[in-house]
Design goal:
This protein folds into three domains: 250 residues, Rossmann fold (3-Layer(aba) Sandwich), CATH 3.40.50.11780; 100 residues, Sandwich (Immunoglobulin-like), CATH 2.60.40; 88 residues, no CATH class. It is built from 14 helices and 20 strands. The chain is of the alpha/beta class. The chain has an eight-stranded mixed sheet, with helices on both faces. Strands 8-7-6-10 form a four-stranded antiparallel sheet.
């Protein structure tokens, strides 16, 4: 309370009677798997494929993550998170340079582990400013100059000390880190290769399901998760557990089929995954134009995992429609996969085949025979029933949960009073009314769209015992719309004329 000592006019700030909640991104595509280079087991976020490439490199044979990220941004994605994973025994490429007296003076390492570093070379040339105590450091990748560091010094206190310049976290090298072993500049030399870089053992299920598995993403704000390099039962089961338990159903798993699964194979795979509303299984993998015949061979098309294109489609729909993630990511219009030219298994075009897989919660990806467009023809999660069994319902419910969790964080540690509970109730009601207006629910009538109880008087959910336990409860329910999977058109002979003629 302010002090009133002498006559004055004072202002006091009153708290707002209702809070607005943040507009959170709904389609943050997240990958764990193989990249060309980059930090290992650290999540990093990107807003474009170009920014991804600066840290993780480009497309490489045998890696689905770069292709998936590329398709995601091509299809409408705006934010991605990537975690690079390497097998055990991986190593960083390195070389040690000597001075003119053949004494070790400068150690050069690739900026991250992996065999990619073996494609780097470093050259030392005389300083362009003519100073004999300085030198130029040139970095090449695959024989092409990618970085140059002119007139750097081996003197620690110098402003142009090579270690300070090259290792700077913001303006330094993307490809190398250096360590000074002496004070003399390295001897002039051309294209000295880094060696002994290794990706380690081939990735196995244990690299995703053991140890920290997906827990490196626990603190990250993510909403979609894919592991296209390892579409196995063990890995996808671990993904679902992470989404349901660790991320409290705020993440949806986009599950790729095993490579070249036929109808029998995809049904057998699906049978191993159990029941979950936090994952959607797609079949089959998709074809895209070959982005690099140098890397992927001479064919005009290559087959890639579908998850990147699917998540891009989800992101595009979230931005286009007022329902956001409640919009079902499927159909010959809303489910189109941009940049996709075909499917790995052409039998998805057959209704008899779709009749086998769709009832088992497998969502076919098929080609429109009239337009050639490739689209997702189903929005079923791995749960045939439950509260939110469709992909749109599951993603939408998770988005509302996440919005309330983030937006109501300001309530923590406030006194649990009627005023506080009233603020919580009004804030939640405002958000639910806005979602109702935007068509997120089964009805645009609030009384039919949602229920809400924050027990403002403190006589029910928040009775004296609950308050003594330092808890504040608010209960809400949402009536979600179900997808129209089956459209039935009833036809008959128009006999009105005959009926009139025979009347009476």
């Amino acid at each position: 309370m302010p002090e009133f000592l002498s006559s004055s006019v004072q202002t006091q700030r009153e708290p707002a009677p209702v809070r607005t909640l943040p507009d959170l991104p709904t389609a943050i595509g997240t990958w764990v798997g193989v990249t060309e280079r980059g930090p290992v087991d650290e999540p990093h976020a990107f807003a474009s494929f170009d920014t991804y490439q600066r840290m993780y490199g480009g497309l490489i044979a045998g890696a689905q993550v770069p292709l998936g990220v590329r398709q995601f941004f091509l299809g409408g994605g705006r934010r991605a998170v990537v975690v690079r994973r390497l097998g055990s025994g991986n190593a960083t490429a390195t070389v040690t340079l000597e001075d003119v007296g053949t004494t070790d003076t400068l150690k050069v390492d690739a900026s991250s582990p992996g065999a990619w570093g073996n494609n780097l070379t470093v050259s030392i040339t005389a300083a362009t400013n003519g100073d004999a105590t300085r030198f130029n450091l040139i970095v090449k990748k695959d024989g092409v100059i990618v970085e140059q560091w002119p007139n750097v010094s081996m003197v620690d206190a110098a402003a142009d000390f090579v270690k300070t310049i090259v290792n700077d976290a913001t303006t330094g090298s993307t490809y190398i880190v250096v360590d000074d072993l002496g004070t003399n500049p390295p001897a002039v030399q051309a294209d000295t290769p880094l060696t002994t870089g290794s990706d380690g053992a081939a990735l196995a299920d244990a690299d995703f399901t053991g140890g920290d598995n997906f827990d490196v993403l626990e603190a990250e704000e993510i909403t979609l998760l894919a592991v296209p390099d390892q579409p196995t039962t063990a890995v996808q089961t671990a993904m679902l557990a992470f989404a349901e338990v660790t991320k409290n159903r705020e993440v949806h798993c986009v599950l790729d089929p095993p490579v070249n699964s036929d109808t029998t194979g995809i049904r057998a795979h699906r049978a191993t995954l159990g029941v979950s509303e936090q994952g959607t299984l797609y079949w089959a993998n998709v074809k895209v134009p070959n982005p690099s015949k140098t890397i992927f061979g001479s064919e005009d098309e290559i087959t890639i995992a579908a998850s990147g294109a699917v998540m891009g489609m989800m992101a595009r729909n979230d931005g286009r429609f007022s329902e956001g993630p409640f919009r079902q990511p499927a159909g010959s219009e809303d489910g189109i996969l941009i940049g996709v030219t075909g499917v790995e298994r052409p039998e998805t075009k057959k209704k008899t085949v779709r009749d086998l897989v769709f009832p088992e919660q497998i969502n076919p990806i098929r080609v429109d025979q009239r337009t050639g467009a490739v689209y997702v023809d189903g929005a079923r999660t791995l749960s045939p029933s439950g509260d939110f069994p469709s992909t749109g319902e599951s993603r939408g419910a998770g988005d509302i949960d996440r919005t309330f969790r983030v937006g109501l964080d300001f309530v923590r540690h406030r006194n649990n009073t009627e005023d506080t509970r009233g603020l919580v109730e009004r804030t939640m009601r405002g958000e639910l009314l806005e979602r109702t207006k935007n068509g997120c629910f089964a009805s645009k009538k609030p009384a039919e769209a949602f229920t809400l109880d924050a027990d403002i008087p403190g006589e029910g959910l928040n009775d004296a015992i609950t308050r003594a336990q330092k808890k504040l409860y608010a209960r809400y329910g949402i009536a979600t719309a179900k997808p129209a999977e089956f459209v039935i058109l009833l036809s008959s002979q128009d006999t009105r004329g005959l009926q009139e003629a025979t009347a009476g």
